Amino acid sequence: MEATCTTVTTNTCINFTKTDDPKNAPVKPVLHFYPGALCNSNVGRLILTGSDGKDKIPDKQPISACDTFKTATHELAHALGFMHEQSRWDRDQYLTVDLTKVDANMRYNYNKYEKEENDNYGKQYDFGGNMHYKDNDMAKGAGDIVMIAKNPAYQMSIGGAIGPVFGDVYEMNMQYKCYDRCSSSATKCLYEGKPNPNKCDECQCPSGFGGKDCSERQAPSHGLTCGDTLEAGADWTAVTRTAPSHGLTCGDTLEAGADWTAVTSMRTVGAGNTDISKINESDPYHCTWHITAPAGKVIEYLVNYVRWPGDAGDYFCKPKYCYFGGVKIKGLEQTWIPEGMKFCCKPQFNQTMTTASNLLVIQAYNSFYYTDFSVQYKLIYSRFYSFSYTLLVP
Description:
The protein is mainly beta. Among the domains are: about 1-80, no CATH class; about 250-380, Jelly Rolls. Helices cover about 10% and strands about 35% of the residues. Strands 12, 13, 14, 15, 16, 17, 18, 19 and 20 form a nine-stranded mixed sheet that branches. It has a three-stranded mixed sheet with strand order 1-5-2, with helices on one face. It starts with a helix and ends in a 13-residue tail after the last strand.
């Protein structure tokens, strides 16, 4: 619970003070975390109606946050006024929800809000946000799927977040006007980053980006030294890189060319841990690659494979949601705020996609052993690119 409150305080202007005397607390209601049978919280401030018919704010507002960082941050966000992502007014543009697969007593979790009561502050729908259910949550049967992505490539990206992501922080800061703290700051953030309300000269960046102004690749974790920035060419090409995070030495920025090229990483992104009892899914190893192309061109890409080292099967796919390891890719959309599309299953491989701009962001992550992967890319002309010239007639 303390880690949950610290995360919100670190990334927003919202502060929490611990109290052992809720009745005499200077501000009410006091958020009361308790170990309930279910994970739940009221959406927004709890207001009760007294016997006299008047509204009353109770001394304590209960939050049954269960016992994980993910669920605690999810339930705290509810208390702060945030509803489920799949309840957005525009969710039907991105999802098909099959309520016949949901127990009648739990269908309210899929109620859709009206546009007038749901402001997402311009953020595009985020399959990977912390407020999004997994595709089978509240399903009647073990094999039932409740939510189906309109773009099938996003199916593995539905839910499964390990905690708040940039989009969650962005909405919270917008809702509580935290960014107003930096209204007089000269800080300019690239790729839709925002000034940190607790340090206005630095930016909070969408995943895949880093540096004080979000102009760099997100740094690797856990000491890894991997990743790169590469330039795409006109043909499919193959480049092998060792992938970073947690002290790793991986990641790169690459330029796309006309030939197919492949970014390949083997036994690099991860700690090599095979003891499932030591997994820390809230702090995965990760490493980022940027693929660039000249202005007026976009990048075609496809995932060759994502796998456990030496695994000819589909290990990362089996727990669903690419939980233990996978690759997240950004570039398909015209916004950088939502989380990237997850890849870890064979049916996702060898499907050609095209970026919306001249940048492709690839982030490999792992919390169990290593994530090996290979992604091919090449540049092509954008069909939206135009040019003008003057014809001189002698």
